[in-house]
Structure formats: structure tokens, C-alpha cells
């Protein structure tokens, strides 16, 4: 897997990341969702540089102009719930993409610290031989992404996979690197060093799904 950690180079992205991490600013859920969306837009732009392009002639009112246009058949698949605002950011740029949604949540059968990932809902177009963009803002242990990939694999084999995430933990990045095909790309804004005993990224930002959409039972 090739990891692209976009915040390594300073840019306006830093402001959006600082706001989603900030304990005061993140309380404004409208701003939180919009910041995740804006980060999705920045990551889309970075990812777009790795896609394939074909020469196309565009007719303007005054003549013709050659331009290289992306010819990948993209399926944009986001993991519910927290993936929704990131999905919108990606779709703002990859507006021709087909769309897929898959659910994954942490089920705690015994206590707060042990959990298993439950994947239930999957709605997708044909993915065989297409460019699959898998989006989830948080990459903590990596178990959700791997569980989702196992479910998606049963429906076809994409030509290539691009994972898009906002904040990850080193441990989770290593885990997905072991479990996704070698030609997978990870486009991620920031990578933190630690996970706590509940599998939350430290310092991270807290619970992305709750910050975007409110607490769940
Ligand atoms: O890398 P992992 O350890 O699997 O954790 C990351 C997952 O946790 C969050 O979802 P959550 O289960 O909180 O669901 P939600 O989006 O409904 O809040 C996040 O959006 C990822 O899907
Ligand atoms: O840090 C984390 C880990 C999982 N899910 C989140 O929303 N945040
Ligand atoms: Mg959550």
C-alpha cells in the first residue's frame, strides 16, 4: 500500500484539521461536517493526480482546445455514518462517480473495550474492474475498513482501490496495509501515534459520527 499523508506539506488543509480537532470549534456540528467535506475536497484533488487521463478535444466558442481528462470509472463507497460528509466532499469533485454505501459499526457485546465490527447494509453498483474509492474519516484500528473490504470483495474485484481518510492511527494504517492489495493507495490528512484502550485515536478528535450527527444509543 502506498500512503500519502497530505498534511506533511503545510497548506490550508491544516486549518480544516485544526478545527475538527479543536474541542470548542468541533461542537458546531454544521461546521464539523463542512470541514470534513472540505477535507474530502482537498484529498480528492490530491488523489486525482494519480488517476489516468486521456486527451480530449473541447470546442470553445472561438476554437478547439486539447485537454487531458480523467477516464477512470469511479465508484465512491462510503462507510456509514461518519463517511457521509466525506462522501459529499469527494462527490463535489468526482461528480461523475457512481455511488455505494456500506454500514459498519462497533458492537460491544461484553464491555467497553472489546468490540467486533458488524457490516450489514451494502448498496452498490457493479464494481468489477472499476476504480473503487473507499471513504471513512477515521482509521483507528483499521478493523472497519478491513471488514468492509471483505464484504465488498464478494461483489466483484475493483481494478484499483483508493482509501480516503481524515485522521488515522499508525496501528490502523499498518493493519490495512497488511490486508488490502499491494497496489492500494491511502490518501490521509493526518496520522496520530496512539490508540487508547477503547480503540480511539489519541489525540484524534473524538467520535466523528457523533460530532457530525449526534450521539447514538
Ligand atoms: O478503524 P476502526 O477501529 O474500525 O474505527 C474506525 C471506525 O469507527 C468510526 O465509526 P463508528 O463505529 O463510530 O460508527 P459511526 O460512523 O456510526 O459513528 C469510524 O467512522 C470508522 O468507521
Ligand atoms: O478515534 C476514533 C475511533 C473510531 N471512531 C471515531 O470516530 N474516532
Ligand atoms: Mg462513531
What does this structure look like?
This is Uracil phosphoribosyltransferase. Belongs to the UPRTase family. Pfam families: UPRTase. Pathway: Pyrimidine metabolism; UMP biosynthesis via salvage pathway; UMP from uracil: step 1/1. This protein is α/β, with parallel strands linked by helices. The chain has a single domain, classed as Rossmann fold (3-Layer(aba) Sandwich). The protein has six helices and twelve strands. The strands form three sheets. Strands 1, 4, 5, 6, 7, 8, 9 and 10 form an eight-stranded mixed sheet that branches. Strands 2-3 form a two-stranded antiparallel ribbon. Strand 9 (160-169), helix 5 and strand 10 form a beta-alpha-beta unit. Helix 1 packs antiparallel against helix 2 and helix 2 (29-48) packs across helix 3. The longest helix has 20 residues, at 29-48.
Question: What would you report as the Rg, rounded to the nearest angstrom?
Answer: 18 Å
If you average the pLDDT, what whole number results? 97
Q: How far is the N terminus from the C terminus?
A: 36 Å
Number of separate domains? 1
The SSE order reads EHHEEEHEEEEHEHEEEH
CATH class: Alpha Beta
Low-pLDDT stretches: none
What is the gist of this entry?
The chain is built from six helices and twelve strands. With about 220 residues, the chain is α/β, with parallel strands linked by helices. The chain has a single domain, classed as Rossmann fold, CATH 3.40.50.
What is the topological layout?
Blueprint: E1 2-5, H1 13-21, H2 29-48, E2 53-60, E3 63-70, E4 74-80, H3 83-93, E5 98-107, E6 116-123, E7 131-135, E8 138-139, H4 143-153, E9 160-169, H5 170-179, E10 185-192, E11 194-195, E12 201-202, H6 208-213
Parallel strand pairs: 1-10, 4-5, 4-7, 7-9, 8-9, 9-10
Antiparallel strand pairs: 2-3, 5-6, 11-12
Helix pairs in contact: 1-2, 2-3
Amino acid at each position: 500500500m502506498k500512503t500519502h499523508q497530505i498534511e506533511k506539506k503545510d497548506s490550508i488543509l491544516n486549518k480544516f484539521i485544526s478545527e475538527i480537532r479543536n474541542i470548542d470549534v468541533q461542537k458546531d456540528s454544521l461546521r464539523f461536517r463542512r470541514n470534513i467535506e472540505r477535507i474530502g475536497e482537498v484529498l480528492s484533488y490530491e488523489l486525482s493526480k494519480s488517476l489516468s487521463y486521456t486527451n480530449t478535444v473541447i470546442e470553445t466558442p472561438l476554437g478547439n482546445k486539447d485537454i487531458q481528462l480523467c477516464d477512470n470509472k469511479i465508484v465512491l463507497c462510503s462507510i456509514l455514518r461518519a463517511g457521509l460528509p466525506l462522501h459529499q466532499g469527494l462527490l463535489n469533485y468526482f461528480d461523475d462517480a457512481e455511488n455505494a454505501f456500506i454500514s459498519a459499526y462497533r458492537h460491544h457485546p461484553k464491555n467497553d473495550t472489546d468490540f467486533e465490527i458488524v457490516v450489514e447494509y451494502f448498496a452498490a453498483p457493479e464494481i468489477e474492474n472499476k476504480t473503487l474509492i473507499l471513504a471513512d474519516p477515521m482509521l483507528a484500528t483499521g478493523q472497519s475498513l478491513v471488514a468492509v473490504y471483505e464484504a465488498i470483495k464478494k461483489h466483484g474485484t475493483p481494478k484499483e482501490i483508493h482509501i480516503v481518510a481524515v485522521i488515522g492511527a499508525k496501528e490502523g494504517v499498518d493493519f490495512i496495509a497488511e490486508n488490502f492489495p499491494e497496489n492500494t493507495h491511502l490518501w490521509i490528512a493526518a496520522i496520530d501515534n496512539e490508540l487508547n484502550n477503547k480503540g480511539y485515536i489519541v489525540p484524534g478528535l473524538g467520535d466523528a459520527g457523533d460530532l457530525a450527527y449526534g450521539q447514538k444509543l
